[in-house]
Write a structure and sequence with these properties.
mainly alpha; metalloaminopeptidase activity; 232 residues; zinc ion binding; 14 helices; aminopeptidase; Peptidase_M1_aminopeptidases
């Protein structure tokens, strides 16, 4: 992908190489593929090809998703659990129908206390239901954040809130980022999630940072968080 971004080879050639990895079982390889496809999705979000790249994502990740399934298998290692979360999150965000339906079912059971989601499945499920959710979905996620006893769970929710798609809900997430509900050191994660969530999110996050620059700078001046904020 680096060569494609530098104009040395065609992006089409990169996508052909990616297709060759459909039977790859290694987590590190899939993580690299996922990051590269995220970069391409971002670049194509301003074009007519964005929906086509989502179809490509579903085609590439579907076989490994079907093999892994939703539940751990006997003798499975830590990397298998990481791979499952990565793949299901990728398929869910891309709108893979079966993944979306199962994520919604499991999220409903989780919220109602019928079947609590395992830690490794929470982020992919949260991302999926938010990406394709509405104001009720966001309100439910904010309620889960408020009720969470563990800071780890609060942080997990904060990182994925930016997946919400509607402009008015994106603004609600950005306002939440500066609220007392979020620790000052975690505000950047919420804003970064919005910036990385969608084309609309990037524009909204950039405007939000400019509009609230004085407050943000006063919070983080001289610290690593201000540089991280600029990066995201």
């Amino acid at each position: 992908l680096c060569q494609a971004r530098a104009g040395i080879i065609s992006t089409v050639e990169v996508l052909k190489v990616m297709e060759a990895f459909v039977n790859e079982p290694n987590y590190t390889v899939w993580s690299d593929l996922s990051c590269n496809l995220e970069i391409l999705s971002t670049l194509l979000s301003h074009t007519d090809f964005y929906e086509e790249i989502q179809v490509f994502v579903k085609d590439v990740f579907s076989p490994i998703g079907e093999r892994l399934g939703w539940d751990p298998k006997p003798g499975e290692g830590h990397l298998d659990a990481l791979l499952r979360g990565l793949v299901l999150g990728k398929l869910g965000k891309a709108g893979h129908k079966a993944t979306l339906e199962e994520a919604r079912r499991r999220f409903k059971d989780h919220v109602e206390g019928k079947q609590i989601l395992s830690a490794d499945l929470r982020s992919p499920v949260y991302v999926t239901i938010l990406k394709h959710g509405d104001s009720t979905t966001l309100d439910t996620m904010l309620k889960l954040h408020k009720q969470a006893d563990m800071q780890e769970e609060k942080n997990r929710i904060e990182r994925v809130l930016g997946a919400i798609s509607q402009p008015e809900l994106i603004q609600k997430v950005l306002t939440f980022a500066l609220s007392e509900e979020v620790r000052p050191q975690d505000t950047v994660s919420v804003i970064g999630g919005v910036a990385g969530g969608s084309k609309q999110g990037r524009k909204a996050a950039w405007k939000f940072v400019r509009d609230n620059w004085e407050e943000l700078y006063n919070r983080y001046q001289g610290g690593f968080l201000i540089s991280r904020l600029i990066k995201v």
